Amino acid sequence: MQLANAALAALLVVSPATAHQALAQGLTPTDRSPYQTMPGVDLYAAACANCHGIDGTGAPPSALAFEEEVPDFTDCSFASREPDADWVAVAHEGGPVRGFSGMMPAFGGILGPEPLERVMAYVRTLCGDARWPRGELNVPRAMFTEKAYPEDELVYTIETPLEGDASALLSEIVYEKRFGPRSQIEVVVPFGVRQRGVGAADPDAWVGGLGDVVLGLKHTVLHSLASGTIVSVGGEVKLPTGKTDDGFGGGTTVLETFAAVGKLLPSDGFLQAQAVFEAPTGAGHPNEVVARGVIGKTFTSGGPWGRAWSPMLETIAARDLVDGEAWSWDLAPQIQVSLNTRQHVLANVAVLLPVTDAGARDARLFIYVLWDWFDGGFFEGW
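Above: the chain sequence. Below: its structure as tokens.
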């Protein structure tokens, strides 16, 4: 904290007259009273501008006494992604609280959370493009429901049955790449190994292979931080790359359209929903509709900026568009947890429980590891 005190005391020489008068009266830097009513723009000029620049683009490297790259707050692609809480955490506790350099000092002992939130309110004005959804709308990723928020992520999922006669270990790699303010492309590559199972000539034999690869596009059509709402639409093409005889593919190209909605709730709660229409192109494959929804809440352990835990309950309903066909229902209780200090590597554990036709469909265990690669390398920030 001595580093933070010295840093702010030095930077206050460029602050408004109110701060000069406070220092002239002999107040120590840890006396917060001069800063409780200062506007965010003035606090930014006093405490941030020497490194981050008056205009938010960052001071030139020649003017800094360290080699770490200073972020550009006017770059909307960077500045819009993280929620205010993460930025306040770094400003309050210093860079190491999120696995960044200690050259970012901790100002919490001087300013406190509320003045830092005013600084953040000003910093948000430096990105002048309202098309970029705010990071607060990027709620935790459920196991099955597509998020409305466009992402830069790599997700590895494994799945195995918890009951039944045949064993399997199925995997899926999802690559998501954001482009522009609101859009995202997605590639899904499934693969795995499984026993042939009952009815096969050699039911205990194991086979492996590639599943049906999926190519997708998602675009945000509405987002509002004031209402805590984000809505996206998208489409996917599932290619028949899997071998159907071994149970790794559907045997036909499938076209899919969907709409996804995210909604912030009080006290760090959230809702997500997705409606899907699938249209296989091959004869004998009926169209299908799927509805998914999830409700959850995020907690932290080890203080307000510690490890994040997000328990969720997900519901999935599906129905073939055939006369007389009934809906099938599943529940998926799950929990997501941040694995590292930077919180850009996360894991989720879910159990998929059939509600209808429970005797004919097995419960399954799903685990994913998610890497938000825009925030740094996989092994950074631990």
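The chain has two domains: 2-124, 135-375.
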